[in-house]
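Data card: per-record layout.
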Amino acid sequence: MEIREATLEDADRIRAIAHDSLRSSYTDFLPSETIDEAVAQWYDDDALADEIDDENALVLVVEDDGDVVAFSQTELVGDGHTTGRILWLHVDPDRRGDGVGVRLLARTREELLEEGAAEIHGVVLEKNELGNEFYATHGFERAGTREIEVGEERYTENVYVGSDLERTGEWRALETVDANGERLYVSYGEPARGSHAPFYTAYEDEDGTERYGWFCGNCDSFDTAMDAMGRVECNDCGNRRKATRWDASYL
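The structure for this 251-residue chain is written out next.
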């Protein structure tokens, strides 16, 4: 069994594994059409090429007897790119339970630490019981939750932090920002990669329960737009964020 960085030659297997894994874990509460559309957009050849070429992203695959059976998709975000965030860890449902996921998680964490991560986060929908159990039993602690929208439904997503790493602070790290006389709260613990600088989640309340939208880290603007699949663009400076998983669409 070999764990290596993905190439475009792995694209077909990555799409197939993502599709089968999401169908296996999420169809109890997500429409199959939503899953199919997400896989088609997130893992087409252009999207995968961008992820593979991005110096702040990492896609690892597990190859066994010449066949790719699992992959992880991660990013380095935040100031100085010191937060490693595991976006997805997908294992072919036929290979679950034989240690593939555990070995991939360990290697993914090692690679993120080598790339300069001081803290590692994992995110998983609350209703994905197996996904939550996986993080909880492999060195992660649930640090908090956030609300996201998938299609027209609202869901809770759990945020996990690697418990054996030194905490750099509260994962949400809300700070008050004035927006034309309106007080908003920017979560510097919830960054998303942008083409020029990170985007940060913004809230209407200091408890971080009422989502406002996105704050552009490139030009300090709240004037952003998001489509249904999670792509974000700053209307002031053109900073863009690609969609790699579901996210809140409150704009």
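Known properties of this structure: The radius of gyration is 17 Å. Residues 164-169 have pLDDT under 50 and may be disordered.

See the next section for split statistics.
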